[in-house]
Amino acid sequence: MTEQEKFETSVKKCMEDHQAVGMAVAIVDAQGVTKYERFFGKRDQETGKGIDDETIFGLASLTKSFTCLAILKMQEDGILSIEDPVSDYIPEFKGMNQGEPVLIKHLMFHSGGYFPQSRIVVDTVAAELGLDEAVVGDLAYNAELAQEGCRQVAGRLDAQEEFIGRPGEYFSYCNDGYGLLSDIIYHHGGSASYADYLLEHILKPLGMERSFCDFVRPLKDENHAALYAVVAGELTKVRDYHDNAFVLNGGGAMKSTLKDLKKYIAMYLNDGTGLNGTSIAKPETITAMTTKRQMDSYVTDYGYGLDIKELNGLQVTGHGGSLPGVSSHLLWCREKGLGVIVLCNTEDVPVSGVAEAALSMGMGFKAERILHHYENKPWDAETLKAACGVYASDEGTKVELFMGEDGEVLLKNGDKTSAVTMIESGHGMIAGEYGDTFIQMIADERRGIFGMRYGSRILPRSKA
User: Fold this and answer.
1) What is the arithmetic mean of pLDDT over 238-254?
2) Count of CB atoms within 10 A of residue 385's CB?
3) What is the pLDDT of residues 384-429, one digit of tens each?
4) Which helix H or strand E contains 22, and what residues bound it?
5) pLDDT value, residue 398
6) Other CB atoms closer than 10 Å to residue 346's CB: what's the count?
7) How high is the pLDDT of residue 413?
8) At what angle do helices 63-76 and 175-188 cross, to 10 degrees?
9) What is the DSSP string of 398-434?
10) pLDDT of residue 3
């Protein structure tokens, strides 16, 4: 069996295991040449319509790279410095953490010090304001909604009394921070909205003609991917792109196609210049985005809106996204001049592993995701005893670390209990078929162990 056959077999198994309806995968080089492309499943299960490179998918958190690119373009233009306090640009935001200002760059690499919060969504805020999309137009461009969304997000962050750490000390994934970044772009970028800034300064210059933040437009397009999620074990069609959509667009509102995203990846592979010769950003801006800033997980670091890790001994960069009806991933290797796009219209499909396997195959290695093998190195008894307990965030995640009857360390998340391989003191891993989850105990002198890094978020220890 060839590596391509192995890859395609593994994709089909992944889709079957997670009830994925459709998936598009492509490998592209720096010249925009498609080295591999395959469409699996359907864009609409009910109609049986297939996928092509013009099919519109949601990107979810892949949007964050567009947001950071926009902020850094504004820095190039002398509008701001990412070393500035966020409060200089958002009057509604005090932005003080333990007496220190939260800077723009801290939000760009999720290090403002904020614990995860429940999502403030478009539909809720629009209803509070009495905004009817049929009357006021697509909410992605509505100034009143953006203003109220910013007020609520800024107020909630300012209301936090307990922080993970000082600004810049710890990485913990924060959609609220990216919401504030989109407000800076909206109010100081010279465009009518965040969505307009992306269109005018990134999407249109790159020739990305079917990429946008609109909520209504995608499902009116003849060639869109219907949205699906698995609810209580059953595949369910998602209403539309409003479902769980964050009120401020900078964290996850983008939609795009395989064809357009090839142009986007090529821009990174060519140090900020598009395939059409248009300079989108300076080479040093692209270098800044792809430079490690903070540890994300045990094997991943974060730059500006991008994850950075190793694949077959080479540095690779990218980001994933997940929302109802969306699982997405971009991944590229600057050294090899290759990038991968994976778009899926079903939530919670582990497409990061698909992207890693595809890029590995494209670079001439085995078509498989990164596999981590660690010898179990038990934590000392004092650390383990202190670490056991429940960790839960307002975002909805709740896990419990405890000792099993046979002395093994276990972690419970919902109905699932998994064994924890202890890598080194305070660090552990839960192995999975399609992706591993890393944990880290977070402590200081005052609070002892007060949090757990679970995946990309730091969950506070439950006081109940």
Assistant:
1) 93
2) 12
3) 999 999 999 999 899 999 999 888 999 999 999 999 999 999 999 9
4) strand 22-29
5) 95
6) 27
7) 95
8) 40
9) EEEEEE-TTS-EEEEETTEEEE-EEEETTEEEE--SS
10) 95
Residue length of the chain: 464
Separation CA 125–CA 83 (nearest Å): 31
Residue-wise over 214-237: b if at least 16 C-beta within 10 A, else e? bbebbbeeebbbbbbbeeeeeeee
Spell out where 63-203 has E strands. 96-97, 100-101
Band the pLDDT of 464: cuts 50, 70, 90: low
Strand 294-297 relative to strand 338-344: parallel, antiparallel, unpaired? Answer: unpaired
Other Cβ atoms less than 10 A from the Cβ of 212: the count is: 23
**Whether pTM exceeds 0.85:** yes
Encoded tokens for 391: 């960790």
Average pLDDT over residues 77-85: 98
- Cβ count within 10 A of residue 327: 27
Report the mean per-residue pLDDT for the chain: 96
d(CA 423, CA 427): 6
Closest Cα to residue 443, out of 170, 102, 193?
A: 170
Chain centre distance of CA 453 = 16
